Amino acid sequence: MSNNKEKNKKLVEIKNLIHSFCEDYLNSELEGYCLKLCDTLGRKRTIDILRSSSELWTASIIYVIARLNFLFDQKNEYHITADDICDYFDTKKSTTGNKATQIEKLCNLSMGAEGYCSEEISDMFIFYETESGLIIPKFIVDK
Length: 143
Hints:
Elements: H1 3-25, H2 28-43, H3 54-68, H4 82-89, H5 93-106, H6 119-124, E1 127-129, E2 135-137, H7 138-142
Antiparallel strand pairs: 1-2
């Protein structure tokens, strides 16, 4: 089997795992962010998606989206823990967290990353400067 076919097969497997997890824990919006990140990783030439297990990739992708969307916060409606993710996929928390950090760096993701978190969250990290030099967040400007 060619490397490209193997890669596509692995990506489909990861997407199926994402879907299963999201059915149990998250909503379709959060699943969409996970799937988008999976597609982004699939296009990266600097990363070999075939090198680690599908479960580790899936857990790490969900971990990234959980961080970006504050899902580790108990006040969040879709609150999950790192243990929930790692137990579901039978991965180690440290390995999953390290892979998630690697993904964030590789994809240049940070808090408020558009397309990977809700518009409400993204807006919290957008700031405007007034003519007088005052810096104000977008959500205040919109009000």
